[in-house]
Amino acid sequence: MKKVLILALPGFASLVTCMCMREKKMAGPDPCSALVEIRTFSNYQSKGRGFFVDTGGLVITAVHVICGEEPDDYPDSILVITSTGRKYRVKSVLAMDIPMDICLVKVDCQNRNYLFLADHPVPGSPVVIPGPKETRTMFSRLYTDEAGRHWGYLRSSPEGGYSGSPVLSENDVVGVLVKPNGFAPVDCINNLLANANPVDLREAHRRYARTPYGYLMFSDAVLCLGDTSKAILYLRKAANMEPSLAEVHNNLGFLLKKQGKYKEARGELEKAAALYDKRGDPENARGVKEMLEELPK
Fold first, then answer.
1. Which CA distances in Å does 264 have to 219, 253, 260?
2. What architecture does CATH give domain 1-206?
């Protein structure tokens, strides 16, 4: 037996009791049966993934999947669509870890299939991101960011739209995909399950919207709509709030380079490279240094 997890949330009575015995696994050989698609309806429609972690409708996904596309664009509703096509609306968010970009939501359904959590992620092991286009890759290493948070790094990334998907090793969840090549490790999921504090959708978005992590994601969203100026504005706000986020300086430098503002771009990219080196992230540091070499002298 792995463990027995009993979760009692404020306002809910024992929402989940997970008896993690290998011989009693209910998700079956196909982990896709425990996956869900998540759509938010506000000024835009965004789409991401999630997965059931018990039979009572508990779903893990990424925070940026359930929030709106801009700071004042809170979602009117969140729709969870199961692998069988059943649709359920999310009433509240049970727990959020904004820096790690993961959250726990609940829908009113009794689902038979769910995924089990691994004990610990093991660097060097093969992993799978399940979905319509399954991605098989390697969990290359763990790294620690500037704030001391631990992240998993993948050798390759799946296509877009897979945010919130589980990262699986032997059909057990080792993390949640929240970045193109990065995931929040399973310990973060356990922390969510143990420290629930339910909020409604508007409050969840409000908490996320005015953080550097929110502004970083909003910049990606508006950039997809072709608004480079607003993307740069959001990145500057994120950099002012949290100067140690390498991804912010990386993205800001890239956009400034595209605009021909080479001197300012160089300053941002140099900051990004230094931060990536400091955290022990040679892959991203190398990419930034290549961009620096492309800048006019």
1. 18, 7, 9
2. Beta Barrel (2.40)
